[in-house]
Design goal:
It contains four helices and no strands. The protein is mainly alpha-helical and 106 residues long.
């Protein structure tokens, strides 16, 4: 997961500075498990008393536990410090929760 705003900045850098025909990964460079995201959303919404339960029947035997790609190539076109990525992610998560009406005030 990553901020849409930062993804747009990366796309702009690729369009203006990139090489036609090359492949660029639009990503943060690190993985965020869905469970962590859901737990953070519950925490911010004050719903820590809810428990997460995995429905084992929905799991596939071939799921990859951790996926991320390198930002090296797009990083040569635009530098976005990890702190900025994390801050943008936090802002987007907060906006998502507010927009869904989960948070009245942060």
């Amino acid at each position: 997961f990553m901020s849409v705003r930062l993804a747009c900045r990366m796309l702009e850098a690729i369009m203006t500075k990139g090489t036609a025909g090359e492949v660029y990964h639009i990503c943060s460079g690190y993985s965020i498990p869905i469970e962590s995201l859901v737990r953070e959303m519950l925490k911010r919404a004050g719903m820590l008393d809810l428990s997460l339960k995995v429905d084992e029947s929905l799991l596939r035997g071939f799921d990859i536990p951790d996926i991320y790609v390198s930002t090296k190539k797009v990083g040569a076109l635009i530098e976005i410090p990890r702190e900025e990525m994390e801050r943008a992610y936090e802002e987007d998560l907060t906006a998502l929760l507010k927009g869904a009406g989960v948070l009245e005030k942060i």
